[in-house]
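Our consortium's second objective concerns turning raw sequence data into structural hypotheses that experimental partners can test. To show how far this objective has progressed, the report includes one record in full. It was chosen at random from the queue rather than selected for favorable results. The single chain below, 159 residues long, was entered without modification.
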Amino acid sequence: MHSLSQVYKDHPVTLHHPLMDLNTMEEVPESYVWPPFDDYLDDETAKNSSIPIISLSEPSLDVLNQISSACEDWGMFQVVNHGVSSQLLSEMESLGNRLFSLPMKQKIKALRAPDGISGYGLARISPFFSKLMWFEGFTIAESPLEHVRCLMPDDYEHF
């Protein structure tokens, strides 16, 4: 079995459009406009649906099945009773806000290579869709320290 690094090297993702500065846009470009969510669910399903919530208070095979089902049916889920302190979550949110509030010219300094895993950029699944995702991300698969040094050379210790 190949490592994730090798798979990414074998299947690079090349940007066919410039990265948009989502913080400064005044209107949504047509390339980012997706059909309304209502087109995917009928009214009854939408009314009775919510994102799955999965508790890790007692990890078990059932929890793995819940995660699998949530990923297949929803593509997402919320984890509760995970043991991560609210203080750490708040600190992570604050650091994330700082990171994504940087100007685009600064974020580009940590741009993920087409065959890379870590760095700033679009979701690797972006090429599979006809519309662009309203998304920017900073993928971390190893230590983010080198990327953060590029982004915040004078204030990277918190990361």
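The partners drew two points from this record. The helical segments are 4-10, 43-47, 61-73, 86-101, 104-107, 145-151. The CA atoms of residues 14 and 32 lie 18 Å apart. Both points have been shared with the crystallography group to help prioritize constructs.
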